[in-house]
Every structure is written in structure tokens, then in C-alpha cells.
From TrEMBL:
InterPro entries, per the entry: His_Pase_superF_clade-1, His_PPase_superfam, Phosphogly_mut1
Positions marked as site (Transition state stabilizer): H188
Catalytic residues, chain numbering: H11 (tele-phosphohistidine intermediate), E89 (proton donor/acceptor)
Residue numbers binding substrate: R62, E89, R90, H91, Y92, R116, R117, G189, N190
Similarity comment text for this entry: Belongs to the phosphoglycerate mutase family. BPG-dependent PGAM subfamily.
The protein's name: phosphoglycerate mutase (2,3-diphosphoglycerate-dependent)
GO molecular function, one term: phosphoglycerate mutase activity
Gene3D superfamilies in the cross-refs: Phosphoglycerate mutase-like
EC number: 5.4.2.11
Keywords: Glycolysis, Isomerase
Superkingdom of origin: Eukaryota
Transmembrane segments: none
Length: 251
């Protein structure tokens, strides 16, 4: 029986992280700390003996840069990388660029929490007058995407993220996993949450022993601690990983 292997990670710290601003689809590169986080992650993965066959990223620089730095530290720069907007961070609409503390003052902490953490509540959409609208929608990376520009999201709930991510997961990633490849996905906080929800990498009562997957999620903004999401364990010593295997959804 095939053993599917997947490492999913959130990119390192971005330039807006310390300012606590909604970065979303604004293309920010890693901060100096984020670069170190990605490099340390690569060192940890190399020490654990991970050998990747294929890497998936979003089209945002912080996701791609994280993957580059990790592969460089591992001596695996040759590994192919495929990038898609469908792995992008959640589109926060009109909230993009705003400070979360200021948002809480203007709209209340509860409303901001709902926008950020609910599954199916969408924030106000971005308008053409928004200061980052042109920067996002005139970017050539989206003119080369698999959907027309007018069909790109203007705001998303977590459910919306999952809906736009699933075609890519089913058509591109799952077949590579089933072929036996070791896959690394360098994504974002919310695209990771959506993918984990669908793939059932988190512990549920409906887990089946077949087919198998060994999933791990690395949050580089938490000192590269390796989380085994099958049981919400935090692995303090990265050399001691759990051996549990879980079902993976997909075609």
C-alpha cells in the first residue's frame, strides 16, 4: 500500500508581520528574520533526512523565497517548483494593508475576529479606489493565471480559499502524491488552514487507514517547531517524529 508523504509549511516572517498589517495578496518579501527562519527550517529538514521530489508554492514572493531558501540549505536547489495563485494567502479585500489594532478600534475586536477566524464570513471587498488595488490586479502574475482577471477574488472567506484551492489540489498535487513523490508545499497561514481542513490531516473520528499519508506542518514564525497535525502534537525534538498515518482526500 502506498505511503503518501507531504510537508506543508507557512512562509517565514514577512515585512508587514511586525506591523501587524493584513498583507494578503500584496507582494511582500521576507524580512531579515523571515530569511533566517526559512534557512533554519532547511537545516532542520536536512538533519531529519527529508528529500523532496517536487515543491509547490503560491505566486507570492514570500512563499517562493521561503522555498528557495529551504532547498538551498538542503542542497536540493534542483528540485522542480510549481507555483499557482490558488495557493495564495486569503484575499482580505478592503482590509488589505490595514493594521489589526486600528481595525479593532474602528469595527470592534469581535467583528475583526469574525472576519479573521470564521469559516464562511467574507470581509468587505476591495474596491478600485483601494491603495493596493492597482498593484494587485495589474500584476503580470495574475494575467498569466488560469482564470480571467475579472474572476479573480476581491475578498474571500476561508471557505472561498478552500473552493479555489481544491481544483489545484485534486488535479496537480494529489496525483504527484499518489505517484510516490515526496512533496513540499510552501504556502500561507490561511491557505494551509484550508488545505488541512480538506485533507483531513487534523485528527478526526472518521480517519481511515487507507490510503496513507505522513503529514507535517511547519510554522516558520514559531521558531520552526514541527507540528504533527495528526494529533496536534508539538515535536520538541525534531528527530522524534510520530509514526501515525492518515487518510488523504483527493481524486
Amino acid at each position: 500500500m502506498a505511503k503518501y508523504r507531504l510537508v506543508l509549511l507557512r512562509h517565514g516572517e514577512g515585512a508587514w508581520t511586525k506591523e501587524n498589517r493584513f498583507c494578503s495578496w500584496v507582494d511582500q518579501k521576507l524580512s531579515s528574520d523571515g530569511i533566517k527562519e526559512a534557512q533554519n527550517c532547511g537545516k532542520h529538514l536536512k538533519a531529519l533526512g527529508f528529500e523532496f521530489d517536487l515543491v509547490f508554492t503560491s505566486v507570492l514572493s514570500r512563499s517562493i523565497q521561503t522555498a528557495w531558501l529551504i532547498l538551498e540549505e538542503m542542497g536540493q536547489e534542483w528540485v522542480p517548483i510549481q507555483s499557482s495563485w490558488r495557493l495564495n494567502e486569503r484575499h482580505y479585500g478592503a482590509l488589505i494593508g490595514l493594521n489589526r489594532a486600528e481595525m479593532a478600534l474602528n469595527h470592534g475586536e469581535e467583528q475583526v475576529k469574525i472576519w479573521r477566524r470564521s469559516y464562511d464570513v467574507t470581509p468587505p471587498p476591495i474596491s478600485e479606489s483601494h491603495p493596493y488595488y492597482a498593484e494587485i490586479y495589474n500584476d503580470r502574475r495574475y494575467k498569466c493565471s488560469d482564470v480571467s482577471q475579472e474572476n479573480l477574488p476581491k475578498a474571500e472567506s476561508l471557505k472561498d480559499v478552500l473552493d479555489r484551492l481544491l481544483p489545484y489540489w485534486n488535479e496537480k498535487i494529489v496525483p504527484e502524491l499518489k505517484s510516490g513523490k515526496m512533496i513540499l508545499i510552501s504556502a500561507h497561514g490561511n491557505s494551509s488552514r484550508a488545505l488541512l481542513k480538506h485533507a483531513s490531516l487534523m485528527r478526526t473520528s472518521s480517519m481511515s487507514p487507507s490510503p496513507l499519508v505522513c503529514p507535517y506542518f511547519l510554522n516558520l514564525m514559531r521558531t520552526c517547531t514541527l507540528w504533527a497535525l495528526t494529533s496536534f502534537w508539538v515535536i520538541k525534538k525534531l528527530s522524534k517524529l510520530p509514526s501515525k498515518k492518515w487518510k488523504i482526500k483527493g481524486k
